[in-house]
Design a protein that fits this description.
The protein is α+β, with helices and mostly antiparallel strands. The protein has three domains: 122 residues, no CATH class; 46 residues, no CATH class; 234 residues, no CATH class. Helices cover 38% and strands 25% of the residues. It has twelve helices and 15 strands. Strands 1, 2, 3, 4, 5, 6, 7, 10, 11, 12, 13, 14 and 15 form a 13-stranded antiparallel sheet that branches. Strands 8-9 form a two-stranded antiparallel ribbon. Strand 5 and strand 6 form a beta hairpin. Helix 3 crosses helix 4, helix 6 crosses helix 10 and helix 9 packs across helix 11. It starts with 7 loop residues before the first strand and ends with a helix.
Length: 418
């Protein structure tokens, strides 16, 4: 129930095709009810079943406007039931059945083929009986928040199996295609909107430092050539996912050298976002040579270890952030290549909510505002990364990395502190 209470974690998905509803009406609630979870279907020859629940708890199947409709957004949960008796237990049950057929003792008497088949059937029946009693069942609940106006679905489906389950049930329920938006795919969509798709196609990961001197090896341990541009091993799924890592580096650089301020939009519609990098930073070598490092503490991005990691060719994979915009403040951990959010702490309401529904509605609105703010930051980064000014920005980041490694503080930081 993270969207309803507690911290929030999610991966961002987009509804890319189909005929999504324009509003959450009775027809939408009927579709949810039609595709609700049916736990009884799991276990009778079926290892897994998925379906909707209303989301207040695991057994909540009461789909109503009161429980599932909040400011034009649909809030429900996907429940997945999986059954599986441990293999060691199956073998034990079969061995016990074989002992019974031998007369109740573990003798060395050989059993006929028919006896062995009967023992196997007895073991399977015992397993099915225990499954019917509710044993050996694993239940997973994943909240789903669908912003109909923005065609965006937020849900903790970072793992491929979880996303596949959500995509299948979503398509069956609403006849719409769901696409996960990691950093690469999101960069393509934003670049197309900004008219920069052609520039994006020719983009490679920037080398902010010289390639490591250590020898790189392939998956079989053989030496491989290190190119001028790093090819991060974690971006194997989508080669453009590296944009998310450069985005984290850009945010880190903004925090150190631009007082953590980023302006979104222009003119009267502009919004200023204040950033602080804190709590944690995970880095990995973009060339796949010098390994990874995970730093924790009050200000890990300012530590000497972080400076040395950047100088050795490592790129940020995850970073702890605090964002403030439009009078709200959020704290989260952001994984760059996947563009997934975890541990999102929402701001407390200014006025105490008068009901549980009012509290949930405020949380839903705050989550969507945060996601749009984060999307605005990524779009601002892409505008700069795909523009002619990037050459100057890249030089500034390189100089900043060198100064950090040398133990010096950049002029902009020194001025900000004076």
């Amino acid at each position: 129930m993270p969207f309803r209470q507690g911290t929030v974690s999610y991966a961002r998905c987009a509804v890319t095709s189909g005929s999504p509803p324009q509003a959450i009406d009775t027809a939408v609630l009927t579709k949810l009810n039609k595709n609700r979870i049916r736990p009884e279907a799991c276990g009778n020859g079926v290892a897994m079943t998925s379906g909707w629940i209303a989301g207040r708890h695991l057994f909540d199947l009461d789909f109503t406007h009161e429980s599932n409709s909040f400011s034009g957004a649909l809030l429900a949960s996907l429940r997945t039931d999986t059954v599986g008796v441990p293999p060691a237990l199956k073998r034990a049950y079969r061995a016990l059945a074989e002992d019974e057929l031998r007369g109740g003792t573990a003798t060395d008497r050989n059993l006929s083929r028919a006896d062995r088949m009967e023992a196997k059937e007895r073991a399977e029946q015992r397993c099915m009986h225990e499954i019917g009693e509710g044993r050996w069942r694993k239940i997973a609940e994943r909240p789903v928040l669908w912003d109909l106006a923005g065609s965006v679905v937020l849900s903790p489906v970072d793992a491929e199996a979880a996303f596949t389950q959500l995509r299948g049930v979503f398509a069956e329920t609403f006849d719409c295609h769901l696409e996960r938006q990691a950093a690469g795919r999101r960069a393509v969509c934003d670049a197309e909107t900004l008219g920069l798709k052609r520039t994006l196609q020719d983009t490679q990961l920037d080398a902010f430092v010289s390639p490591p001197a250590a020898v790189a090896t392939d998956s079989e341990g053989a030496p491989k050539r290190i190119g001028e541009h790093p090819e991060p091993p974690w971006a194997a799924g989508d080669p453009l996912d590296f944009f998310g890592n450069v985005f984290l580096l850009w945010l880190w650089w903004k925090c150190d050298c631009a007082e953590g301020l980023v302006e979104l939009g222009k003119g009267r519609e502009s919004t200023e976002v204040a950033l602080v990098a804190e709590r944690l930073v995970d880095l990995d070598c973009a060339w796949g040579v010098t390994g990874a490092i995970n730093l924790r503490g009050d200000a890990p991005t300012r530590s000497p270890e972080a400076a040395r990691a950047l100088a050795s060719g490592k790129m940020p994979r995850r970073i702890g952030l605090t964002l403030a915009a439009d009078g709200q403040q959020w704290r989260c951990t952001l994984q760059g290549d996947r563009m997934s959010v975890s541990g999102l702490v929402l701001p407390k309401p200014v006025e105490p909510p008068q009901s549980i529904r009012e509290l949930v509605e405020e949380r839903v609105n705050s989550t969507l505002i945060f996601d749009r703010t984060l999307g605005g930051l990524y779009e601002a980064f892409l505008c700069e990364r795909l523009s002619a000014s990037w050459k100057s920005v890249r030089s500034g980041i390189r100089e900043w990395i060198q100064e950090r490694a040398a133990g010096r503080v950049s002029k902009s930081v020194a001025i900000a502190r004076s």
